[in-house]
Structure formats: structure tokens, C-alpha cells
Predict the structure.
Amino acid sequence: MDARQLGLEGRSRVIARRAIAKVLREFYKENSQASAIRSGYSLIEFAAQDQQIPGKIRAMLANLCQRVNVQFAFDDDVDILNISEQLVDWFSKE
């Protein structure tokens, strides 16, 4: 059973974003512009616009910033946990 079925989708999105923000802080350790960003969400938005990161990775980061609809779900069939796992793997290898 996934988080959506348990009614914990919102919580899983928050945890996924926190995990990616932590990985991004390590990735940008030497980048003074990114290191000044305090908010994990803002750091994800920054990375989603970073032209040094491949387009496929930027698109996945942008998915993490996607807003939910009035039913607190994504309009597209977006699997935040799967995206987060892929991003952690990619940034861990860089």
C-alpha cells in the first residue's frame, strides 16, 4: 500500500522534498549562490533552473515543485517518491 492509499500523500511529498534538499545542499556545497538559500523548497526551485544540470533531472526537480489541485493530488500521474529516489541516486553519483 502506498502513501496515497493511506491518505499520507502530503506527508510523503514533504519528506521527499526534504530528502532532495539535503542532497542538493551537499551538491551545491561549493556554490556560494546556492548555499545562501535556506529553504529546501527554494533550493529545489533553484536547481530546477540550473543549466549545469541535465534537462531530464531539472524536469524531475520541477515535478517536486508542482502544486496539488483542490483534491490535494497532482493533476498528472506524478510519483514523487519514485522521482525522489531517482534524484537521490543521480546526485549521489555526481
The two ends are 32 Å apart (CA to CA).
